[in-house]
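Ticket #4471: structure export looks truncated?
Reporter: QA, pipeline team
Priority: medium

Steps to reproduce: submit the single chain below to the structure queue and open the exported record.
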Amino acid sequence: MTHISDPAFQAKADIQVRQGDLGRNGCVSTIGMARWLEDARLRVELPRFERLVGAGEFDPFQIVLVSQSVELLAPAHREDTNAQVHTGVRRIGRSSFTFEHEVFADNKRVGSGEATVLLLGTAGPLALPDELIADLTALQMPDSSTTVVNRPDAERHERDHYAYFTPLRARICDVDSNQHVNFIALATWYDEAVAAFTSAALGVGKGDLLSDLSPSSYRINYVSEVTYPGDYEIGILVAAFDTDSVHYELGIFLEGTCLGVADAVGTRGELSARSLAPGGPS
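Actual output as written to the record:
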């Protein structure tokens, strides 16, 4: 879909472009766009479910992300006055459902994404109540037969799969109301790991300016909670590269246990084939 009036998406959220959404190149960053998608999801109206919860007729629950993706498709700027996220529901399961997003700025499609959300109770996943299913059905896309994205292979959860590691320490400001590190904060950790890898690959010294090679897309899968305090490490493997881009596989670990994995695609820039090959920066 390329036109802002496409009727497939039932929920539309106006977005105010903020300075903090911008990357080093002056355009909205991948992380900034991920915030837009989060904002749009929080603004989706689920009136039947909200009445059920408000009446105290549904067990205590948390809304937990199972996976999410975001992709920049074209530049979006601070000056864009008409930014919108269009949201629909792609899949409705027993305990989870999947949002799909398209992002527009001044009537131009600039991004896309999706998020799979799980309803979690004290004893585990909760069955979606009829009221929530009715709300989601009203938002469901006309064609919900999209190809299912396969979850990463089991080897991605093994520390030995990765060739390069960078340490990261959780900060108290990363923690959200679910008492774990927020998923947007985790996305910035992956950004930090790619920056550390490209710095090492390019031989960038302390105080030198690093070329902007931040990923333009992420697909993130959550395995377990990342909590504070904690000292973590992000593993990176170059899965593939061509003349223009690099596909990274990433994993977050605590003492050898995998807590999440991600795929990212970034600009290659001046990264040499040697630095991207096995045995690259260490």
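Status: closed, not a bug. The export was complete when the record was re-opened. Leaving a note from the reviewer for reference: Residues 154-276 form a domain with the Thiol Ester Dehydrase; Chain A fold (CATH 3.10.129.10).
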